[in-house]
Amino acid sequence: MATIGFIGVGNMGGPMARNLLKAGYRLQVFDLSVEAVRHVTDAGGKKAASAVDAIAGADVVISMLPAGRHVRDVYLSDDGVLAKAAPNTLLIDCSTIDIDSARAVHQAAEAKGFDFLDAPVSGGVGGAEAATLAFMCGGSDKAFARAKPVLDNMGKRIVHAGGAGAGQAAKICNNMLLAVSMIGTCEAFVLGEKLGLDPQKLFDIMSAASGQCWSLTTYCPVPGPVPAAPSNRDYTGGFATALMLKDLKLAQGAAQGAGAATPLGAEAAQLYALLAAKGHAGLDFSGIIKMLRGEL
Ligand code: NAD
């Protein structure tokens, strides 16, 4: 079985790495956090002293880092992955980052003859643990074909979105739509409450009518209709406002660069920025209903 160098084993990377161990891969793990590394070495991974150490002798490198600057640093620095990886190593970055950074790393990787894939995910920590993540991939057909059997061990939907940066592009388009649909769903419930409607009745009607959407039927922002939704846990343990805001800012940056009009995406970014500024960056993103009710 192949050896994988895994860089960044935090909330997402940790469970993803453990699923690769379960599948039988040898893992060499590096993270700036000793604690994060321990969660993977306890499951059988080998601790690496640095990123260079993690990729030594690896067939595949996977990274799961916070933002574009971390990815540029890990791949492009003088003693980074591109400088030190063996020829023919397959490189997969699963972080959610800006498209420009993703394309810069693609270009540098290609110039050195590496197959590189941007492969951000959706599905959250629960999906990472259950190996049910969706991967949105950008890169060549060859890079995708090589990566798919590895990604299959961490996810259940592995989609080739297109060339360099296409995975990041698909991810921010999806999350911008998600934010807009969540805010719209919340507004409908708040209006319904003011008009004296029972939330369960309104849910039953909208979920079978043209207002039906994922934010309503899978992630309902009022407690009751969808028992697994974070609204039933006072908006904890889901997809944090801070992470949604990060993705919305990436979407706005990309929209400006590409000249796309995204007025509702811009409004959604402002509303989530306001929620975060009020001290609720850790609240699940469906908790924005509380702000719309005037409770926060
Ligand atoms: P996290 O902060 O828990 O993990 C990131 C890890 O990277 C940390 O452990 C940190 O120590 C490590 N790190 C930072 N710089 C490093 C470096 N130079 N070398 C080695 N390690 C380094 O974040 P997370 O929640 O695991 O998210 C990771 C990525 O996945 C982000 O881009 C995020 O937007 C994306 N994402 C997160 C979720 C989610 O629900 N948490 C869902 C989808 C996508």
Question: In short, what is this structure?
Answer:
With 296 residues, this protein is an alpha/beta fold.
- What is the rounded distance between the termini? 52 Å
In the CATH scheme, the class of the largest domain would be Alpha Beta
Shape: elongated
CATH homologous superfamily heading of the largest domain:
NAD(P)-binding Rossmann-like Domain
Query: Biggest sheet, strands in spatial order?
Result: 3-2-1-4-5-6
What would the average pLDDT be, to the nearest integer?
A: 97
Q: Summarize the amount of helix as a percent range.
A: 40-55%
What is the CA-atom radius of gyration, in angstroms?
Answer: 20 Å
Number of strands: 9
Index terms:
binds nicotinamide-adenine-dinucleotide, alpha/beta, three-stranded mixed beta sheet, Rossmann fold, 9 strands, 2 domains, six-stranded parallel beta sheet, 296 residues, N-(1-d-carboxylethyl)-l-norvaline Dehydrogenase, domain 2, 14% strand
Written account of the structure:
This protein has 296 residues and is α/β, with parallel strands linked by helices. The chain folds into 2 domains: 3-163, NAD(P)-binding Rossmann-like Domain (Rossmann fold), CATH 3.40.50.720; 169-293, N-(1-d-carboxylethyl)-l-norvaline Dehydrogenase, domain 2. The chain is 51% helix and 14% strand. The chain has 14 helices and 9 strands. The protein has helices spanning 13-22, 34-41, 51-55, 68-76, 81-84, 99-111, 124-130, 141-151, 166-194, 199-206, 214-217, 241-258, 263-280, 288-293, and strands at residues 3-7, 26-30, 46-47, 60-63, 90-93, 115-118, 121-122, 133-138, 155-162. The strands form 2 sheets. The chain has a 6-stranded parallel beta sheet, with helices on both faces. A 3-stranded mixed beta sheet has the order 7-8-9. Helix 2 (34-41) links the parallel strand 2 (26-30) and strand 3. Helix 9 packs across helix 12 (241-258). The chain is elongated, with a radius of gyration of 20 Å. The termini are far apart. The model has no long low-confidence stretch (mean pLDDT 97). The chain binds nicotinamide-adenine-dinucleotide. Nicotinamide-adenine-dinucleotide is lined by residues 7-8, 10-13, 30-33, 36, 51, 64-66, 70, 73-74, 95-96, 121-122, 124-125, 239, 243, 246.
